[in-house]
Amino acid sequence: MSKNKKTFFIKINSNPYRAKEGQTVLDVALKNKIFITRLCYHPDTVIQGSCRLCLVEIKGKKGLFTACNTQVEPDMDILTDSEAISRAKKTNLELIFTEHCEECNDCIYRYGCTIKKFAKDYDVKINKFPDRKKDHPVHDFGPALQFDAKKCVDCGICVDICKKVGACFLEYEKVGDFYEVVPSSKPDKDCIYCGQCITHCPVGAFEGVGEFEAIEEPLRQKDAGKTVVFQFAPSIRSTIGEEFDMPHGSIVTGRLIGAIKQLGIEHVFDVSVGADVTTIEEAKELIERLGDKKATLPMFTSCCPGWVKFLEFYHPEFIPHLTSVRSPQIIMGGLIKTYWAKEKGIDPKDIIVISIMPCVAKKYEIERPENMIGDIKPVDHVLTTREFAQLLKKNKIDLKNVKAVNPDPFLGVPTGAGVIYGASGGVMESALRTAYKMITGKKLPQLELEQVRGIEGFKKTEIDINGTKLKVGVINGAANAKIILDELKENPRAYDYVEMMACFGGCIGGGGQPVPVNDEIRKKRAQGLYNVDTRNNIRMADESVFVKNLYKEFLADHDNVHKVCHTKFSKKDKEVYPKNYKK
Ligand code: FES
Questions:
Q1: Residue 379 and residue 337: Cα distance in Å, rounded?
Q2: Ligand 1 atom closest to residue 54's alpha carbon, by position in its atom list
Q3: What are the boundaries of each domain within the chain?
Q4: What confidence tens digit (pLDDT) does each residue in 264-316 have?
Q5: What pLDDT, in 10s, does the model give residues 193-224?
Q6: Are 453 and 462 in contact (CB under 8 A)?
Q7: CA of 187 to the centre of ligand 1 (A)
Q8: Distance of CA 68 from the midpoint of ligand 1 (Å)
């Protein structure tokens, strides 16, 4: 907000508060920790003003006002509670419940449902009126997520967040007498599986495929004589603690491994090690492209499957910019089913790899035929952070009380560079640490590249490598990619290297992460990962003892590098819904 905005005092519930021109009543209330009920307000989206649960009275003015979109004025005297407010909120809540069919057992808010709490506070009978949407369908969006129109209260947050992500796949359509949220039927709109609709919907109308129905199924394969292996993504260590009431950004790596072992799983690997391999391959490819006048530049990162789908569907003309390096999850799964399987003497077909991932798009990534190694699928199942937390809760395992256990040493311990992959800018920073050393023979003077860190949607900087300026850009939120893609249409050499993540803040803000989420939470989760990096003795992928041995023993064979570490991309058409994906 501009420094020139006028400040003045207002009163809320008879107490004076400083306010600024342009703020809303809700802004001032939130800043001063005054609670106002609200449902369709989310700090990440534009104001919807649709739920009418944030009603307040303003002395001297007739009627009730919505706090989320009423701007403050000097000397405003506001009441957040009165008989008239309660009556109106009660009616509005009753109307909301006519839209929302409760299916509380399989709802991501089952342990903290906002509307049920409001119903209790305002003494609302949730079934007073019949459910208007009881015959509405469940829409499958590919192998990653589902939208249950029976639960949707049409608040509009998902439509806005989908637009902010850049897909614009969710929209309003007239259904009978009402405007309702629907997936777009337009041929030029498709879901990119980022799952931001899941983490932003206040009533649990979106969920990952199999989020409640299939979490235990992969574990059962152990009973069928299979070797079940778990691997977890870099960001999980700083987010899953929230599901067990731990502070945002708590690092729980050892406890997470301990908890997986309590489920009877012997082998647990850290995908951050796969990230170290991704870093080496990506740094090599960047250097190759920079040295080849005919190569396509800038090079784009490709480890975010939501971003990859965005580019393949919406901007296929930019596909040659994507690095061919596979994502850390796919590389790690591939190493487990090739290198590790051989060492252990296990037939890869008898290994089941289960990933714990921050993201529902990772469910889509493992189904991409481009990621197969011959007839071997590197990863068999993906559980999101939320799903895995649910699995632990079902098994009465409280992460807070689990004893920390070290990772399986065979596939190594990650470097700090592998861990920061979970935050926006982390892939870029890791690759540049290694690329700089590969080019100059020296370490970067300052390993922390602060210019590419942070949750801002677009960051750009230049890194000096031996007198040559490497122009880099970092994007989170696929819609922000438009800034760079438009710039490249004008000036194709505006950048050399670009990191793109579909979700806000990168994987720490992924669609499979705990709810709720906002910028403050994203910052704390990212900081947790940076703290792990700072404390790590080894902070460069190329200095990892495991990675060095891997390149001597297994990846010295170019065929293995090609099969396990690289992939292809191609133009994608709109998915046809519904498809019979397994629930
Ligand atoms: Fe203000 Fe919904 S929060 S109308």
A1: 9
A2: 1
A3: 7-81, 96-208, 220-565
A4: 999 999 999 999 999 999 999 999 999 999 999 999 999 999 999 999 999 99
A5: 999 999 999 999 999 998 888 888 888 888 88
A6: no
A7: 33
A8: 6
- Taking the CA atoms of 416, 421, 426 and 429 in sequence, report the sign of the dihedral they define: positive
Query: 127 versus 114: which is more confidently predicted?
Result: 114
- The residue to mutate among 41, 78, 118, having the most atoms of ligand 1 within 8 angstroms of its beta carbon, is 41
> Are 455 and 535 a contacting pair, CB within 8 Å?
no
Per-residue pLDDT averaged across 559-567, rounded? 98
pLDDT of residue 581: 40
Atom of ligand 1 nearest to the CA of 37: 3
Helix axes 328-335, 271-290, angle to 10 degrees: 110
pLDDT tens for 324-366 read: 999 999 999 999 999 999 999 999 999 999 999 999 999 999 9
Contact 312, 567 (CB under 8 A): no
Which residues partner with 7 through β-bridges?
20
Closest CA to 135 of 85, 180, 93: 180
What is the rounded CA–CA span in Å between residue 193 and residue 197?
Answer: 9
For residues 135 and 180, give the distance between their C-alpha atoms in angstroms, rounded to a whole number: 14
The answer to whether residues 439 and 563 touch, using CB atoms and an 8 Å cutoff, is no
- Work out the percent of the chain whose per-residue pLDDT is above 70: 98
Buried-exposed string 376-388: b where 16+ CB fall within 10 A, e elsewhere: bbbbbbbbbbbbb
Q: For 512-524, how does the pLDDT look when each residue is reduced to its tens digit (9 = 90+)?
A: 999 999 999 999 9
Ligand 1: residues with CB < 6 A are 38-41, 49-54, 66, 68
Structure tokens belonging to residue 476: 């989170």
Cβ contact 58:73 at 8 Å: no
CATH code that applies to domain 7-81 = 3.10.20.740
| Phi-psi sector, 176: left (phi>0), alpha (psi -120 to 50), beta | left
User: HSE on the CB side for 289, CA within 13 Å?
Assistant: 23
The residue assigned the tokens 């839209």 is 99
Residue 394, number of CB atoms within 10 A of its CB: 10
The amino acid at 338: T
Q: Reduced to 3 states, what is the DSSP secondary structure of residue 340?
A: helix
> Which residue CA neighbors atom 3 of ligand 1 most closely?
38
- Which amino acid is located at 452 in the chain? V
C-alpha to C-alpha distance for 384 and 311, rounded to whole angstroms: 23
Evaluate whether the domain defined by 220-565 bears CATH number 3.40.50.1000. Answer: no
Share the mean pLDDT of the chain.
95
Q: Is the pTM of this model over 0.90?
A: yes
User: Residue 175 — pLDDT band, cuts 50, 70, 90?
Assistant: confident
Q: What is the CATH number of domain 96-208?
A: 3.30.70.20
Residue 244 has pLDDT above 90, yes or no: yes
Q: Read off the pLDDT of residues 371-426 as tens digits, 9 standing for 90 and up.
A: 999 999 999 999 999 999 999 999 999 999 999 998 888 887 899 999 999 999 99
Q: Residue 225 corresponds to which tokens in the numbers above? A: 């004589």
Residues written for the chain:
583
What pLDDT sits at residue 579? 47
